[in-house]
Design brief:
Blueprint lengths: L1 E5 L8 E4 L9 E10 L2 H7 L10 E2 L4 E8 L11 E4 L2 E2 L5 H4 L11 E3 L3 E2 L6 E5 L3 E3 L6 H5 L4 H13 L8 E4 L3 H12 L5 E3 L3 H9 L3 E3 L9 E6 L7 H5 L2 E9 L11 H5 L3 E4 L5 H13 L7 E5 L3 H9 L6 E5 L1 H4 L5
Parallel strand pairs: 8-9, 12-13, 12-15, 13-14, 15-16, 16-17, 18-19
Antiparallel strand pairs: 1-2, 1-4, 3-5, 3-10, 3-19, 5-6, 6-11, 7-8
Length: 339
């Protein structure tokens, strides 16, 4: 099968090559990939500043496709269904895994397309049968792919941000990439009025076109916010963001970065709460796909490239020339479901 292969770190390009078909252990399904989103994490991995998978490796942790076969132990009724991937595979033994939350595995979860398990920048993908989420009718493959990672992450963040707080409170979302944009859509759907902070004018225009509020800097957000959700992960901005959170407020870290020096005095003096968000659960993914299919939220605007042209897409993302979401399409797996 054809795949985009990561062969060295750091790397500027992926190698389009023929690789063996994926192995299908018991209890797994084989998925013909039709679409797979590109995430900033892919760029960070290629740049050598994030996860370091064993090479060669196939990236792509936002896959959508159609189940074409199942191995023993998997339900044959899955064949023909359109699915997205729940990407975290834990040890199955620690407290988090036993509670059904593999993404927080204490021994370090493997992440499809990121670490330990090959991903969706390929024609075929093997997934555990209990790690697929059905894509609702009416939601195109490309739109679904744009939500595989951003969607559950944003849904998890929105749930935490809104818990026990009036919708009339002030919500600031730093970063209008796919996660921040979907998060703002979810908050707005719940009756809140979030403000997105985004220095990229292309993204601010896209946000405004959706009827959402966007400003270029933290200073333009007004008084300190009840909740500030950091979807940007810019190390140099974290202290300034904490300073924009009101007393007894919440700072949610969705994007993250290494901060060599940070004065936490403001956290104590304002009695702030700091909470991390690591993606979301399969239930979060299923829910956000359904919300998009129903029209309750709008997926990110998408631009598509064929698998063979993935390096062009990566270059556009690195250059900051793309306002919305980059999605790779694979003709062999589309079967009339692209969009």
């Amino acid at each position: 099968m054809k795949a985009a292969v990561l062969r060295e770190l750091p790397a500027e390009r992926l190698d389009i090559a023929e690789v063996p078909e994926p192995e299908r252990p018991p209890g797994s399904v084989e998925v013909a990939i039709s679409a797979c989103g590109i995430c900033g994490t892919d760029l960070h991995i290629m740049g050598g500043t994030s996860y370091r998978p064993e090479l060669p490796f196939v990236l792509g942790h936002e896959p959508v496709g159609t189940v074409v076969s199942v191995s023993p132990g998997a339900d044959p009724a899955l064949v023909g269904r359109r699915v997205a991937a729940a990407i975290f595979t834990g040890c199955g033994r620690c407290a988090a895994c036993q509670a059904g939350d593999e993404r927080l595995c204490e021994r370090g979860a493997r992440v499809t397309g990121v670490l330990g398990l090959w991903g969706g920048f390929a024609e075929r993908l093997s997934l555990a049968a209990d790690h697929v989420v059905e894509v609702p009718a009416g939601l195109a493959d490309v739109a679904a792919a744009s939500l595989v990672d951003a969607g559950p992450t944003a849904h998890n963040a929105a749930r935490v941000a809104l818990a026990g707080r009036p919708r009339s409170g002030s919500f600031v979302v730093a970063g209008a990439g796919p996660v921040g944009l979907v998060l703002a859509e979810l908050l707005a759907a719940e009756g809140a009025d979030p403000v997105l902070v985004e220095p990229n004018p292309l993204r601010r225009t896209m946000v405004a076109d959706r009827g959402l509020r966007a400003v270029a800097s933290l200073e333009e957000t007004g008084p300190p916010a009840d909740v500030l959700i950091d979807c940007a992960g810019v190390a140099g901005a974290i202290a300034a963001m904490l300073a924009r959170v009101a007393s007894h407020g919440l700072y949610l870290s969705v994007g993250y970065a290494a901060v060599p020096e940070l004065d936490l005095a403001i956290v104590a003096r304002r009695e702030l709460t700091i909470r991390g968000i690591r993606s979301g659960t399969p239930a979060d993914l299923a829910r956000v796909l359904q919300l998009a299919a129903d029209g309750t939220i709008r997926p990110p605007d998408c631009q598509t490239w064929d698998l063979a042209d993935i390096n062009d897409a990566l270059a556009e993302l690195r250059g900051g020339r793309l306002a919305g979401k980059a999605v790779i399409t694979v003709a062999a797996g589309q079967a009339g479901h692209g969009g």
